[in-house]
Write a structure and sequence with these properties.
By secondary structure, the protein is α+β, with helices and mostly antiparallel strands. The protein has three helices and five strands; from the N terminus they run ααβββββα. The protein has one domain (3-90): HU Protein, Chain A (Irregular), CATH 4.10.520.10. A three-stranded antiparallel β-sheet has the order 1-2-5. Helix 1 (3-14) packs across helix 2.
Length: 92
């Protein structure tokens, strides 16, 4: 399921106009994004949690040339699936 399918499903399920459903989905995702940018954890019970993980920089190797390169530190979003969803998916 992609974002537009989620919007269509929400509109149909809740009898909402498509624009209103899109606004709701965009608001939810926007708030989740803003919380992660602030370094906060986002938890959705029954689904899982999102957090930002910090990865330290390291020295790597360019596989094509063999040249040593410095890989900068970075922060990336990380999703951890919740127990309830894990169990529901495993049933099928």
């Amino acid at each position: 399921m992609n974002k537009s399918q989620l919007i269509e499903s929400l509109a149909k399920e809740e009898s909402l106009p498509l624009r209103k459903a899109e606004e709701v989905v965009n608001t939810v995702f926007g708030e989740m994004e803003a919380a992660l940018i602030r370094g906060e954890r986002v938890e959705i019970r029954g689904l899982g949690s999102f957090k930002v993980k910090k990865y330290d920089g390291y020295k790597g190797r360019n596989p094509k040339t063999g040249e040593m390169i410095k890989v900068a530190s970075k922060k990336l979003p990380f999703f951890k699936v919740g127990k309830e969803l894990k169990e529901r998916v495993d049933l099928f």
